[in-house]
Amino acid sequence: xxxxxxxxxxxxxxxxxxxxxxxxxxxxxxxxxxxxxxxxxxxxxxxxxxxxxxxxxxxxxxxxxxxxxxxxxxxxxxxxxxxxxxxxxxxxxxxxxxxxxxxxxxxxxxxxxxxxxxxxxxxxxxxxxxxxxxxxxxxxxxxxxxxxxxxxxxxxxxxxxxxxxxxxxxxxxxxxxxxxxxxxxxxxxxxxxxxxxxxxxxxxxxxxxxxxxxxxxxxxxxxxxxxxxxxxxxxxxxxxxxxxxxxxxxxxxxxxxxxxxxxxxxxxxxxxxxxxxxxxxxxxxxxxxxxxxxxxxxxxxxxxxxxxxxxxxxxxxxxxxxxxxxxxxxxxxxxxxxxxxxxxxxxxxxxxxxxxxxxxxxxxxxxxxxxxxxxxxxxxxxxxxxxxxxxxxxxxxxxxxxxxxxxxxx
Length: 410
Prior knowledge:
Elements: H1 3-22, H2 27-36, H3 39-58, E1 65-71, E2 90-99, H4 102-170, H5 176-211, H6 229-234, H7 237-258, E3 264-272, E4 279-285, H8 296-362, H9 368-401
Antiparallel strand pairs: 1-2, 2-3, 3-4
Helix pairs in contact: 2-4, 3-4, 4-5, 4-7, 4-9, 7-8, 8-9
């Protein structure tokens, strides 16, 4: 390979990281990076794994009990503490098992699986919150960059005004008061640029906190798809979580109701005697529910009261999500109308005014002051329009990314 080709390859390899870093970062890629590295999602996944293990254990019978002992051991007389002299002394070993019916075990497993479903929602909620916070940080960083461009332009105009004033002062056509005033304006513009630069730095760091990468170039955010009211409410994190809470409460009430039937315990034991026949014992222990209306029924009633509470919370959350959706849509529509009106009635005339002032100044029919005033008015209009666009984009982000996504999975 010729020498210049090797050099070209080396320079390309050296500058490749810079080229990659300079590539604009799309919003969707930023969100994907944030979701992949989210420790909150990893934490909630661990909660799901824990609940799954508990669900598998919930459908099993309790562990059996091993019973070992000595019965009828003499403690007085000549046979005191001897295990092989008295015919009634017996070494005993046995096993007991508490028995739960298949229906009870199924009820407990259903309750545990309801907890798994609730923990799964926590994973989905964590992912949705990561998407939302990343998108909002992306919006802040993008519009901070756009605001910096306008501030830099304003600083440039102020510097031009100051230089023109100095030229007029040196030619005796200006005055020192004008120059001092413009010098102050230039300093204020430079400080505004420094302030916006600081805001942009903070916004970029906030975005990097989510994505894990530093990127100075961000893509323009277009119109995001809005869900319908029914879809937004149905996928609202609070609504979905409370819907799972209702199911958990119902299954817990079913478990409490199943305790109205006592669990029997079966026991089998083998007794060994010295010089006499060994014995086998079989028995069953039956709990006596002497006051079920005061104990078991009370526990069941308490669980059903929690069901009512969960249902009331769900209804309230549904109304709140509905009101939130309508408020966001109303804000988005009003902001969109304001943007169009402001662009047509203020921003566009400001651009035309600057063009007219520039043409007049070029033909010696307008003053430099008029041109500078037109430039200032145009930048101010662009700033206000940028602020409206930022508010509109933030509202869109909340509509698009606050609900749970169908693709969220533990």
